[in-house]
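Quick review question:
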């Protein structure tokens, strides 16, 4: 917003929002899900330190960090269905998936279904964040799991 041709212009701000909103809606976000915050990519204004009202009279909202600090924390339910987004996968004596358990629990021997592919698999081993073998893992833990019956990385 502080670029020399923009200079914290409210009309440029409105143009950006008008062009961005249809894209976000097509991506599955409603306007209620999105908070717009004008910031400076050069000086960092309005990221942590509030804007000086003389620079940007039209913005009355919070800083980016204040908004992020006030976001609700999702509940991690150990009794819920297993949800573990896969961050990385490697083929090393079987296929190993790295991720963070967001809900549910896993135990060695559990049978799981890989989504969205639908392939069935079984948990052959679990390593915690210290690379130590564990018998189970709970929500919030970063783990590496060895998947039995998954022969190629592309199956994940």
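Suggested answer, residue by residue:
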């Amino acid at each position: 917003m502080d670029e020399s041709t923009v200079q914290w212009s409210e009309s440029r701000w409105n143009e950006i929002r008008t062009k961005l909103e249809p894209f976000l809606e097509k991506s599955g976000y409603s306007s209620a899900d999105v908070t717009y915050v004008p910031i400076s990519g050069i000086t960092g204004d309005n990221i942590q330190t509030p804007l000086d009202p003389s620079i940007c009279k039209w913005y009355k909202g919070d800083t980016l960090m204040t908004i992020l600090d006030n976001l609700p924390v999702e509940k991690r339910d150990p009794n819920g269905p297993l949800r573990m987004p896969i961050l990385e996968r490697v083929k090393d004596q079987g296929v190993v998936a790295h991720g963070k358990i967001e809900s549910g629990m896993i135990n060695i021997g559990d049978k799981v279904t890989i989504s969205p592919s639908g392939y069935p698999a079984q948990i052959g081993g679990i390593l915690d964040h210290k690379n130590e073998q564990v018998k189970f893992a709970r929500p919030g833990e970063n783990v590496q799991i060895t998947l039995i019956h998954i022969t190629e990385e592309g199956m994940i």
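Why it works: Strands lie at 86-91, 95-100, 106-107, 111-113, 120-127, 133-134, 136-137, 142-148. Residues 10-26 form the longest helix (17 residues).
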